[in-house]
Amino acid sequence: MRNGAEPRPTRERILDAAHELMLTVGLARATTKEIARAAGCSEAALYKHFAGKEELFIRVLAERLPPLTPLLHRLAAEPEQRPLEDNLTEIARQAALFYEQSFPIAASLYAETQLKRRHDAAMREIGSGPHRPIESLDAYLQAEQARGRVRADADTFAAASLLLGACAQRAFAYDATETGERPAVEEFAARLARTLAGGIGA
């Protein structure tokens, strides 16, 4: 603590430590014991704030990564604040950043079958999971459809899956290239939104 500054709340320190460990060693190896140690608290204190590692993972995604789900909920409630393509560009930008930052955290899940099953069961129990952004984007596109800005015959679920699938693909598809560089997020989002809006826009 410097210059009399207040110490960060325990919950915030735990989230910061969980985020850092999940990025550096992966979700599978980031134990609650290691997270508590890095946060400077006891494991018992960690469990006062979070039910377990699965809930910590969800809170890290929600509070330490680009806010994709709140954006989708806001746009579904007020879809006509901006043009359709502008909204899709912002969604694509946030989604690309979200997957870019969350993929290194979640990737280790797929290397351990039993851990993945336990994690999936925990996600179902708390009503979360990687399908939620698709459902939220589908709801937004349906709201646009109801207002006549998306074609009546457009498949909104397919459109949502295409946009978010492309953003997720960007997160890992370019590591094997000579430069290892992903497409710049701003241009990527604009091109993706323009193409999708051209296909489904009324």
TrEMBL record:
Pfam families cross-referenced by the UniProt entry: TetR_C_7, TetR_N
Positions of the HTH tetR-type domain: 8-68
InterPro entries from the UniProt entry: Homeodomain-like_sf, HTH-type_TetR-like_transc_reg, HTH_TetR, Tet_transcr_reg_TetR-rel_C_sf, TetR_C_Proteobacteria
DNA-binding region, residue range(s): 31-50
PROSITE patterns xrefs: HTH_TETR_2
Gene3D superfamilies: Tetracycline Repressor, domain 2 (1.10.357.10)
Sections of the chain in a coiled coil: none
MF terms in GO: DNA-binding transcription factor activity; transcription cis-regulatory region binding
Entry annotated with the keyword RNA-binding: no
Keywords: DNA-binding, Transcription, Transcription regulation
Official protein name in the record: TetR family transcriptional regulator
Species assigned in the record: Streptomyces echinoruber
GN (gene name): rutR
